[in-house]
Every structure is written in structure tokens, then in C-alpha cells.
From TrEMBL:
<dbReference type="InterPro" id="IPR046251">
    <property type="entry name" value="DUF6284"/>
</dbReference>
<dbReference type="Pfam" id="PF19801">
    <property type="entry name" value="DUF6284"/>
</dbReference>
<feature type="region of interest" description="Disordered">
    <location>
        <begin position="59"/>
        <end position="85"/>
    </location>
</feature>
<protein>
    <submittedName>
        <fullName>Uncharacterized protein</fullName>
    </submittedName>
</protein>
Length: 85
């Protein structure tokens, strides 16, 4: 019989010394518009799955995809130019 046990390090992985650094928090904050655009696009796609799509839903999905791509381009351009948000 094989016993299943937990690894203590995994259970208590969030010790005080493992908090995100200020640089990591700044990076997350600079990526937040992209994250929010992705969430909005996923919400639109889920809405389309729940019912028969109408023209308005299709336009909303296209706008969401456009916003997501725009935010990705902005983030990529910032990374290439070395600009800090």
C-alpha cells in the first residue's frame, strides 16, 4: 500500500522571507492593464458560450480581442524600449 503524504515545504511555501520584492510588485502593476484585458476577453468568450451569439456579442468579443492585442503590443514595446512604467 502506498501512502500519500504532503511535503511540508509546499504546504508552508509562503513564509515571510518569500514575499514578492518591490521590483516584482512593480512588474505586476505594470502588466495589470494586460491582465485586466485578458480577463475581460475571457468573460466575453464565456458569455458567448452560454447563449446563442448575437451581433452585439460578436462585436463585444472583437473589441475585447482588439483591446487585449493592443495591451500586449504596448507591453511588448515597453519591454523592448526598456521603459519602466
Amino acid at each position: 500500500m502506498n501512502h500519500i503524504v504532503t511535503v511540508q515545504d509546499v504546504v508552508t511555501a509562503f513564509a515571510d522571507w518569500m514575499e514578492p520584492t518591490d521590483a516584482e510588485l512593480d512588474a505586476i502593476e505594470s502588466e495589470m492593464p494586460q491582465i485586466l484585458a485578458d480577463i475581460e476577453t475571457l468573460d466575453d468568450q464565456l458569455t458567448l458560450l452560454d447563449s446563442a451569439p448575437r451581433e452585439l456579442d460578436a462585436r463585444r468579443a472583437r473589441r475585447g480581442r482588439h483591446r487585449t492585442l493592443s495591451e500586449r503590443a504596448t507591453l511588448a514595446n515597453r519591454a523592448v524600449s526598456g521603459e519602466v512604467a
